[in-house]
Amino acid sequence: MYISHLQLRNFMCHHELDLDFGSGVNYLVGDNNSGKTTVLRALQYLHDGVTKGHDISEYRYHALGAFNEEVDTVPVVVTADIVFERNEVPPQCLADDDSEYDSEAHGHLLNDAVYDPLCPYVFFDNDTKQYLLRVRRSSATVTLHKHSKGKASTLGIKDIGVFDNRNKREDEYTNATGISAKIQRLFDPIFVWADDTPDAAADFAPTKIMGKLISEETAKFKESLLWKNFLDAHKKAFITGGDESDMQIDSQPSLQEKLNSIASAIGMRMNEQYGGSNAVQFAFEQPDVSNFVKMGQVLIHETSSDSSNDKDVSFGGDITPEAELQHKGTGMQRAFALAAIQVYAEQQREHSVDKSDEDNDGDSEKELPIISSLVALDEPDMALHPCAQYTLADSLHKSQHCQYFISTHSPYMLHGYSDKQDTLHVLYAESGNRKNLLSPGKLQIVEDISPSIPAITYFAFGIPTPEFHSELYGRITNVIEETCQRENISVASVGIEIGKEFIDIPKRYRFDSRKPREKDCATKKENWNRYGGNVLEEPLPTYVRNCTDHPESIGKMTDEAKQHDEFKNLDNKFSTDDLHSSIEYMLEYLRRHDPVMVESGKCFMRHPVLSNGAPEI
Length: 617
Hints:
The structure is a single chain. Helices cover 35% and strands 17% of the residues. With 617 residues, the protein is α+β, with helices and mostly antiparallel strands. Strands 1, 2, 4, 5, 6, 9 and 10 form a 7-stranded antiparallel sheet that branches. The chain has a 6-stranded mixed sheet with strand order 11-14-15-3-16-17, sandwiched between helices. A two-stranded antiparallel sheet has the order 7-8. The longest helix is centred in the middle third of the chain and has 26 residues, at 330-355. The radius of gyration is 34 Å and the shape is elongated. The two termini are 42 Å apart.
């Protein structure tokens, strides 16, 4: 189960935005102020009705502007499609027009009877061929129907509405009693914002990540003999005092008893000054585990990789002193926070599977098992070394039953990207409106191989690099060689093939210092001896590739050549525009001739920034 589609209407900077998501890692990239974090806030609004303490009126303000007279009348709407696998859907929900319908299916929605009220609203979508539960939260209050006593039922901002496909109306949403709580428990959202204090993850309060992470063990500890003995000792120490059975305490008075004289003195003074016969006593209640847990700290004890040599640094060894997390660097704090979140998400999924086999009380919301974890990370690359970003990206892709939403400015966070289970959305602002790059396309140059960092840098962030150019040139070389072998013809060069494919492709003159071959003409050999090389006219991709791979050529030009009209203006350099154009030509060549691309009909992603300057091919 995962969120497959999100629709935003009048939400902060997004007037209209529709996004499709995968079950794995979903990336949001784009320029500053393009609305990446806003998408994460929309997810939180859908679940909670607020986000980061802000109420919905602020979103109307952001959507329309401070001076718009219609600010209070425009509804803010966030809609999501939740996808269920067939084995998660009970037999009564399976559709007759589902080509993969199995009449013997024994699946059950979320494997728990407490979610039975959701079953009537799960429907089979013929367009996507998926079983969906469509939910919505809106700032507008809608009257649904009237009861027999004349009382109207409404759907407002405090409710999560669920789409009722049985009525075949696109706007038919309902809020059956208790259904909002059940929808909220389908997934347990965790949000980490870029402006969060990095050491906030070390907070053991019950509403914080660490508090939630240890809550089950804390509950078990409350039932332990150790805790009960502690409470007995606390009661004797603070309230009742010891008795003769306590050999070590030896009938000592409790702290409360010791303070009775002070309390009595205060009472007497009160009665003397203000009248009456009031008695004062100091009381100490029994503590709860949470009283102690919330005072917990996270200590970091760094050691060397070789534990056999561990020694205290004060003696010249390899171990650093123990330190509280808040006293460590920002990178360490963020690394801890992200690790704790992943462990919590995995823990929640494991516990929900365990609880699915238990008999739960359908009226007890606390018993509802969490089916899927949703983790939203706002710029997790902040303060993390690129190696740490690599490792984090790998870890996220290995997580099971957890859907991630990540806004990032780093190509390293996209390491391991797979277009089969992940999605990438490039958000950008155009004339004041925020948009999403529709149909993002492929990032992989070779099928089933994760895209390289240079490829990600180009497709996702709009930055052409010589490294990506070389990667494309190598792939085209392989395609040409494979084609020539199949057709049993001589292998042609990339330059010749691209020149034939694109007649109008730009050409550049380059100084080539390579020694002429025996079969080359005498003029080439004479120029090489006299000027240090020859002038070659090459298609743009070949020119850029040779300038990149042979930067030493220009340095071998003789002083005489530098004064010669044919050589003096050559510099073997290329501009960013040249690099961009060359890459676009090669991408188009692969689209036309790479067997995988031709067979699948897929296209490469085109970044909006690069599309504006792309050559007309």
